[in-house]
Amino acid sequence: MVTDGRRPDLLRDGTAGRSNVVPIAGDVTCPGHRAELRAAVLAQSDRLDLLVNNASKLGPSPQPHLAGYPLEVLRDVYEVNVLAPLALLAHLTPLLTAAGGVVVNISSDAAVEPYPGWGGYGSAKAALDQLSRIYAAENPEIRTYAIDPGDMATELHQQAFPGEDISDRPAPETVVPALLRLLDERPPSGRYRAGEPSEPAAR
User: Fold this and answer.
1) How confident is the model at residue 99 (pLDDT cuts 50, 70, 90)?
2) Is 121 a known active-site residue?
3) Relative to the CA of 56, which of 29, 120, 138, 172 has its CA 20 to 30 Å away?
4) Which residues of 45-71 are buried (b: 16+ CB within 10 A; e: fewer)?
5) pLDDT at 178 over 90
6) Which of 56, 57, 69, 125 is catalytic?
């Protein structure tokens, strides 16, 4: 198993004691880092059973309305949320095909709901959803899921609500059983909510 993250300290803490996990610190928007990830996968096998694209970038906080959104910042949001996952797929599709593998792209309800002030992040996640659908149509041997995990008490979610108490949101680990059930059941490719993994979510 290979995992990565931008913050070496958190990556080290999260993988401590797990001898089967290869942690690689770096930024997924960096071509060199993506090449390093592919090399680490190939060092273990010539096939890949599962790719999870979890990296996300919210953008400015508080979030601006679209008419005032700095385009250079929006490009960065799309780089993390859309282009980096696509670049990893370009690197790893042959290995996923060999395994009849699974792709999990972490989406958001902001991809389908037009929340004021969420235009940058939401449109990027909408693009990731459509990318997932097209990739699934082009690679039917690979199950491809865009997953809406719901609100969670994460650092990114806190950025979206600066100064607010979000401790009432579920912890990220509460979503894990639903994701594991999705991987066990392997329903058709599509967009799913973590709380309803067997039924495709409305577009």
Assistant:
1) very high
2) yes
3) 138
4) eeebeebbbebbbbbbeebbeeeebee
5) no
6) 125
pLDDT of residue 161: 67
* CATH top-level class of 47-200: alpha beta
List, for residues 107-127, the tens digit of each pLDDT value.
999 999 999 999 999 999 999
Which of 108, 123, 132, 189 is flagged as catalytic? Answer: 108
* Residue owning tokens 């495709």: 200
Whether residue 200 is predicted with pLDDT greater than 70 in this model: the reply is no
For CATH 3.40.50.720, the residue range(s) in the chain are 47-200
Lowest mean pLDDT, pick from 21-30, 48-57, 65-74, 175-184: 175-184
107 is catalytic: yes
Euclidean distance between CA atoms 19 and 143, whole angstroms = 28
Q: Which of 107, 123, 132, 189 is catalytic?
A: 107
DSSP string, 183-201: HHH---SEEEETTEEEEEP
pTM for this entry: 0.89
Our answer to whether residue 145 is catalytic in this structure is no
**Active-site annotation holder among 69, 78, 121, 192:** 121
Given this model, what pLDDT does residue 163 score? Answer: 74
Could you give the C-alpha distances from 12 to 5, 7, 18, 27, 44, in angstroms and in order?
9, 9, 10, 15, 20
Whether 45 sits among the annotated catalytic residues: the reply is no
